[in-house]
């Protein structure tokens, strides 16, 4: 991994975690929605990152957000689950049809549709795990489903805007 890639990922980490802690954790729309844009950092980590390092990076990313927001490890657990599943989705969706070597998954690597589906799956599973832990009551299964869907859609839109504004085409 070259130095510019390390600095880009470090900058993305700092920006997304700061945005999450200072802005998005203070946004609750209707009590059902809290956008978790920092998950985009996990989705955009380099493709050559191994499974164990990926899970450790995801765990510590979630743990930092948990500590900053005084949570009980919900983000850390959800991030670790997503990092575990990320490799399967990355290989099955993005790398499956691409002949070129993709360094970092984004809307500009491969097709927009492939990355959009990949990102949607990551955000959906993250939100399902996160809201299941947060609400933790099967009587409120509809609230979990509604919160997960709304959180996924809003975060996906914000992630798309982030990609359009801040990620350069390579």
Brief summary of the model shown:
The protein has 170 residues and is mainly α.
What is this structure's SSE topology?
Blueprint: H1 3-22, H2 39-43, H3 51-69, H4 74-94, H5 112-135, H6 141-166
Helix pairs in contact: 1-3, 3-4, 4-5, 5-6
Please supply descriptive tags for the structure shown above.
single chain; 170 residues; mainly alpha; Arp2/3 complex 21 kDa subunit ARPC3; 0% strand
Can you describe what's shown?
The protein is mostly helical. The protein has one domain (3-166): Arp2/3 complex 21 kDa subunit ARPC3. It is 68% helix and 0% strand. Helix 4 runs antiparallel to helix 5 (112-135). The longest helix is centred in the C-terminal third of the chain and has 26 residues, at 141-166. It is globular, with a radius of gyration of 15 Å.
The figure for the number of domains is: 1
Rg, Å, rounded: 15 Å
Terminal CA distance = 16 Å
Secondary structural class: mainly alpha
Oligomer: single chain
CATH structural architecture: Orthogonal Bundle
Q: Please provide the ordered H/E string of secondary-structure elements.
A: HHHHHH
Number of helices: 6
Q: Which parts are unreliable, with pLDDT below 50 for 5 consecutive residues or more? A: none
Number of strands: 0
- Strand percent estimate: under 5%
The percentage helix is 55-70%
Instruction: Note the overall shape.
Output: globular
């Amino acid at each position: 991994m070259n130095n510019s890639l390390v600095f880009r990922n470090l900058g993305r980490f700092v920006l997304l975690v700061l945005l999450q802690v200072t802005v998005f954790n203070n946004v609750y729309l209707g009590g059902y929605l809290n956008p978790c844009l920092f998950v985009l950092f996990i989705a955009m980590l380099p493709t050559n990152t191994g499974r164990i390092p990926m899970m450790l990076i995801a765990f510590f990313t979630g743990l930092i957000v948990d500590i900053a927001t005084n949570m009980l490890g919900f983000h850390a657990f959800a991030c670790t689950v997503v990092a575990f599943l990320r490799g399967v989705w990355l290989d099955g969706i993005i790398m499956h049809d691409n002949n070129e070597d993709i360094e970092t998954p984004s809307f500009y690597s491969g097709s927009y549709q492939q990355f959009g589906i990949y990102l949607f799956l990551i955000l959906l599973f993250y939100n399902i795990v996160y809201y299941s832990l947060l609400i933790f009551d099967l009587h409120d299964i509809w609230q979990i489903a509604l919160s997960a869907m709304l959180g996924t859609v809003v975060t996906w839109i914000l992630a798309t805007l982030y990609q359009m504004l801040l990620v350069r085409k390579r």
